[in-house]
């Protein structure tokens, strides 16, 4: 076993977030840019080489729904290089792992995105692929192109199977009124995480989908039938379910009060996670083309020609800050929603600190505000 002095230095924050818990006075033993040990600060010898840090050290954020970044939209450029550009853009804001997301489009676009994921996976924080559509409701399509919405087809099945056979995590958002339960079960058997979204399914279809293995809902409140006095809709059903639920917390897609209501109404903790649904404007110019139409950033909103929202201009760092400052959610809970829960959804092991490189760690202030990457901190000089 290595002694305390075998490390380059010990990183000593006020608090450490690991495995879903904020812990006081913990230290990270760093050697050649990698976390080799996690110990109590009180157990370190007086002569240990220390780097004290105010605030919180945490694994980077994990975003399961990212359409673009750095001026690049995955649908427009379904390549490995595009995925890496998107991931690098989000890394500036603390997201160190993500699922590039391909939305409803021509079948060839999905095929190219799946092939790109085979190359991009495991590099620059790309940890899988999210296929959002095209097997969704026309009535709840949102900004998705109506002309490309279709029943489940061989292109999707073959793409999912190819990725799952290569052990690459896949999430697929679909509407259970469009995709029957036997096909959902087939996707689940392949290894995909099936998420219900862009849907106005009734209770029977949702129940059948969940029994078939669907275990998630996509961007709560958005592109799904709303709650009403005599009908919970997909929204109310999602909130009351024991399934995982993603939510955009930017004050635009969902009002803060509705986020708070949903979190309080969930039947169990650790089921709700943050997503950004981010577009190319994160780390890029304030406009981009989607389906040949110009989308512009206007006072924090991405608007198409119809005046409808077209994705989001936000990050998980902004979502955490909003949860803590506006909704008074504990920092530990907010970090779980951005790290531990999305890891659990996709079966990722990214919220453990030991074994990680410091370029996958982030620094936050005591209120959960993103302060920058740990890799940018100057290590202490060796004595």
User: How far is it from the N-terminal to the C-terminal residue, by CA?
Assistant: 22 Å
Low-confidence stretches: none
Could you tell me the CATH topology label of the largest domain.
TIM Barrel
Helix vs. strand class? alpha/beta
Rg measurement, Å? 21 Å
Describe this protein's structure.
Helix content is 26%, strand content 26%. By secondary structure, the protein is α/β, with parallel strands linked by helices. It has 2 domains: 79 residues, Urease, subunit C, domain 1 (Roll); 286 residues, Metal-dependent hydrolases (TIM Barrel), CATH 3.20.20.140. It has an 8-stranded parallel beta sheet. Strands 1, 2, 3, 4, 5, 19 and 20 form a 7-stranded mixed beta sheet that branches. The protein has a 3-stranded antiparallel beta sheet with strand order 16-17-18, with no helix packed on it. Helix 3 links the parallel strand 10 and strand 11. Helix 2 packs parallel to helix 3. The two termini are 22 Å apart.
Give the structure's gist in a few sentences:
The protein has 2 domains: 4-58 and 353-376, Urease, subunit C, domain 1 (Roll), CATH 2.30.40; 61-346, Alpha-Beta Barrel (TIM Barrel). Helix content is 26%, strand content 26%.
């Amino acid at each position: 076993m290595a002694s305390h002095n075998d490390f380059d230095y010990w990183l000593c924050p006020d608090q450490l977030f690991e495995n879903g818990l904020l812990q006081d006075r913990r230290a990270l033993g760093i050697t050649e840019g990698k976390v080799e040990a996690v110990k109590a600060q009180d157990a370190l010898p007086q002569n240990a080489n220390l780097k004290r840090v105010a605030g919180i050290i945490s694994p980077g954020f994990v975003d399961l729904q990212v359409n673009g970044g750095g001026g690049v939209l995955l649908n427009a450029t379904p390549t490995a290089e595009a995925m890496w550009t998107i991931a690098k853009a989000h890394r500036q804001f603390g997201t160190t792992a993500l699922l590039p997301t391909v939305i409803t489009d021509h079948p060839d676009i999905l095929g190219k995105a799946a092939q790109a994921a085979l190359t991009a996976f495991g590099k620059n924080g790309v940890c899988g692929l999210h296929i959002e559509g095209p097997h969704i409701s026309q009535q709840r399509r949102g900004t998705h192109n109506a002309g490309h919405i279709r029943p489940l087809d061989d292109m999707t099945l073959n793409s999912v199977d190819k990725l799952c056979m290569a052990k690459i995590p896949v999430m697929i958002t679909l509407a259970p009124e469009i995709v029957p339960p036997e096909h959902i079960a087939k996707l689940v058997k392949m290894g995909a995480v099936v998420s219900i979204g862009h849907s106005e399914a009734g209770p029977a279809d949702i129940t059948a989908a969940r029994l078939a293995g669907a275990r998630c809902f996509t961007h709560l409140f958005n592109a799904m039938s709303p709650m009403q006095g005599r009908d919970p809709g997909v929204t109310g059903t999602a909130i009351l379910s024991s399934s995982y639920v993603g939510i955009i917390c930017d004050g635009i897609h969902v009002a803060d009060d509705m986020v708070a209501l949903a979190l309080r109404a969930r039947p169990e903790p650790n089921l709700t996670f943050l997503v950004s649904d981010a577009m190319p404007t994160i780390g890029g110019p304030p406009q981009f083309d989607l389906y040949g139409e110009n989308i512009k950033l206007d006072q924090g909103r991405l608007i198409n020609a119809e005046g409808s929202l077209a994705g989001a201009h936000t990050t998980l760092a902004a979502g955490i800050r909003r949860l803590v400052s506006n909704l008074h959610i504990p920092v530990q809970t907010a970090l779980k929603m951005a790290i531990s829960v999305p890891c659990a959804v996709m079966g990722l092991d990214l919220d453990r600190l030991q074994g990680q490189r410091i370029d996958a760690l982030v620094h936050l202030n005591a209120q959960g505000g993103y302060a920058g990457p740990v890799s940018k901190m100057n290590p202490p000089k060796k004595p």
